[in-house]
Specification:
This protein is mainly alpha-helical and 145 residues long. It has helices at 39-53, 61-76, 95-107, 115-121, 124-135; strands at residues 8-10, 16-18, 22-23, 26-28, 34-36. Helix 2 packs across helix 5.
């Protein structure tokens, strides 16, 4: 019988951590010893993680504007401000949030009479474009006096 690969381990604090977990500037390896990470390597790893979080394709702002004009403006307006009490204000909202909500409507994880139908009509590129449009709107807020 072969050995199972080590996927996680316990430290003296009793917390289970995955192999490769970064802990106080040290990386835990399969052999359970600690190797110090050089400062330059830390910066390289951080840059790689940031780049991997960016979307693969670039959104087309003009296509997002056109899709918002054709599909979204009836309820959300071109500025992203809902026209009725039960319509979400999406202008200035974070892109990742908007993408998640549209994806959830599309997949059926989130249900809404109109949004479920509208989101089902959108392609991944449409979602990327229209969320880019609405997320780039600058919203300002005033605190009541």
């Amino acid at each position: 019988m072969g050995r199972r690969p080590l996927r996680s381990f316990f430290l003296s604090d009793g917390v289970r951590r995955p192999v490769g977990a970064l802990l106080d500037g040290k990386v835990m390896t399969r052999r359970r010893h600690v190797t110090t990470i050089e400062p330059q390597l830390k910066r390289i790893l951080a840059a790689a993680l940031l780049c991997s979080a960016l979307p693969a394709g670039a959104a087309d702002l003009e296509a997002g504007r056109a899709k918002a004009e054709a599909v979204c403006q009836t309820c959300h307006g071109m500025n992203g401000r809902g026209i009725a009490a039960m319509v979400a204000n999406i202008g200035g909202q974070q892109k990742q949030y908007l993408v998640k909500q549209l994806s959830d409507y599309r997949s059926g994880r989130r249900q809404h009479e109109q949004m479920s139908i509208i989101a089902a009509m959108l392609t991944e590129q449409d979602i990327d474009n229209v969320t880019d449009w609405y997320s780039r709107i600058v919203a300002t807020f005033e605190i009541p006096q």
